[in-house]
Design goal:
This protein is an alpha/beta fold. The protein is built from 17 helices and 25 strands. The chain is globular. Bound molecules: 7-thionicotinamide-adenine-dinucleotide phosphate. 7-thionicotinamide-adenine-dinucleotide phosphate binds next to helix 9 and helix 10.
Length: 498
Amino acid sequence: MSHTMASSPQVRTYGLYIDGVETQAKNTSVRSAPGTGEQIAKFASADVADTERAISVARRVFDEGSWPHSTGATRSKTLLKLAALMQENSEGLARIEADEVGKPIKQARGDVAGSIAMVEHAASLALSESGRAVDNVDPDVMSMIIREPVGVVGMITPWNFPLLQLMQKLPYALAAGCTTVIKPAEITSGTTVEIARLCTKAGFPDGVVNVVTGSGSVVGDALAASIDVDLLSFTGSTAVGASITTSSAPTTKRLSMELGGKGAAVVLPDADLEQAANGVLFGALFNSGQCCVATTRLLVHDDVADELIDKIIAKLATVKVGRPLDERSEVGAMIHEYHLQKVLGFIETGLSEGGKLLAGGSRLSDGEYADGFFVEPTVIDNVDKDDTIFQEEIFGPVLAITRFSSLEEAVTLTNAVDYGLANTVWASGIQTALPLAKRLKSGSVWVNTTLENAPQMPTGGVKRSGYGREMGPEGYEEFTEPKTITMRLEPAAQFFGQ
Ligand code: TAP
């Protein structure tokens, strides 16, 4: 891969990656760039038989192959080799991601850097994590809790951060000794196939990393229904996640669910308002708001609401919406036309339910925006707890503002949604900020910062945002199964009152 290839108008072609070999499928799908309308990639569209072939390869390689029994050092070195190859190809990966998703190239570079950091972190866990001993039950009893790889892992990922979401799962599963079958979102499959190619170069045995591109209702459903998939690790919408819990139920496989979100940024009167204005806006607009942890609800104390909103509107005037490969762009395109219309529909509903438009509100379609799916960053004030845009995940660059007058009200409002992924608190006094952070129902809370992640920090949701954690030692453990081996030393065990 080279970035000249990625940035040329030439269409990139990707096949199915099974057992270390890339093959074409009977059908293909074509992806046009959401920022420019140009055709950029052609993906293989797998059928159920292709998916079952990939699963049976992953099953055989897990049951009979060397990877699950390899040493921590081998897994770690192979992961570090993958990280080095990703580094060599980082600009190409970033350009594919920007092209296919429509995100600004600067942010795509950040996604690649973050992904490499996760591979390196997983490499360290492959060396450091192991089982434990229990030796305090009886002086003559010793128990070992060993950690075994969970088996064949199916991974289903969304289109908003194709590489980053994959890397929150794949390196940790590989560090644990699992084999994998990955189904990326059909329209953004490029970097996932690129990673499979790099995995072979890095020295992962054939069949450890398999990629089956195609639609969710075919490939995803086949993964959910397969008895040979031991764990299905899913990132996507709450609706599809819920349907997978049903479709996979007869197999009793383990599930890990990273689902939707509806984060709030809570701004207290003692907050640094300049910082808060910048952070709130970034949290709402990052990845064009197509971000599970986006803070698209601003909950602000009455005393500082007007001042903060003025600062947000002033800052917004300096934010550059632009084509993904334009180095100046800070907000890119929506993923596709249908989604753009959905976002515009949410804005319309928000205003019809009593919201007051402070900025944006329309599609951008002139000049550089003519061939892409761009929405103006939008700010709506006067949003009530029961309004649609307060409750539902918009997945677009829309900030909904609600005011409060007491800490209790801020807690109630933050928690008054079905989701529980990530929230943010802006406040100077730690005595207020920390107790507040503890009362917010979400898997993560940021205080005086936002969207700040690192591989050492686990991420995941509560309520309808799902269950399970990714990254950190907790994320690694998701891909392991504890096994308890108990031994009696001397004297011999007593049975039936011998
Ligand atoms: P979804 O529409 O749910 O799609 C996610 C994945 O599921 C895609 O690969 C999709 O395939 C596949 N899929 C669709 N139907 C399926 C089925 N019946 N069985 C199995 N798989 C199926 O989500 P999206 O629109 O791509 O992504 C946006 C959503 O992801 C948002 O709700 C966002 O909050 C959430 N998200 C959550 C997180 C975390 S960490 N919690 C991170 C990122 C995104 P195709 O699309 O190819 O058909």
